[in-house]
Every structure is written in C-alpha cells, then in structure tokens.
Amino acid sequence: MATPKQRRNEHLARNARSAPRKRLIGALTGGPLGLLAPIVAVLVWAALDGGWEEHGLQPEGGTGALVTGLLMLAIGVGFPVGLLGAMLARRLRTSRGASWGDAATAFVGAYLAGALAAAVVGLLFVA
To answer: Sorted alphabetically, which keywords does the UniProt record give (predicted)?
Structure first.
C-alpha cells in the first residue's frame, strides 16, 4: 500500500514526464490558430459585406487556392511563430511566478504571437 506522500510523488513524476509533450502540442496548435483567426475573420467579414470581389480578395484559383494558401501559412509561419511565442511565454511565466500550467502557457503565448504576426502582416498590406 502506497503512502499519500508516495502517491503524490508518483503524480508529480507523471506530470513532469508529460509536460514537454503538452507544451509542444500547445505551441503547435496555438501558433497557427492565432495566425489564422484574424485572417479568417477578415475573409468572413468581406464575404458578408458584399463578397470578396468587391474588396479585391478573390483568389486566382478560387476557394481551393485560398485554403491551400492558408494551410501553407499555418504550417510555414504558424509553427515557428508558435514555438517562439510559447518559449517567451514560459520565460515570462517563470519570472513572474504565475500559477498557470505549462500547456496553457504555451498555447496562450503561441496564440498571442500568431495573432501579433497576423496583425503586423495585415498592417503591412494596408500601408
């Protein structure tokens, strides 16, 4: 029969073994979601506001080309930006002593980094 201290130590050891995998999953999902969410919101707004043609957003190859471009953007830019954002968020969390878990910190940091990258790219196209 295990004592409460042994059960607690086993639980902490299990969490410590699964933490890197959770951080990686959080980073690799948060970055692309943060990058694509503002872009998809603009495309939905343009579709509801008179169509893509009126705003000059109709892609040359149709919707398939748009989906392919967004997937390429999510993989080529979203993954690296998400990993960078997760790393910076983890450093900030450890310096501030926050009580969030590793996976939540990685996801939120990656999401914010992706959203910031989408905002910067959007501002470059507007200017």
So the answer is: Membrane, Transmembrane, Transmembrane helix
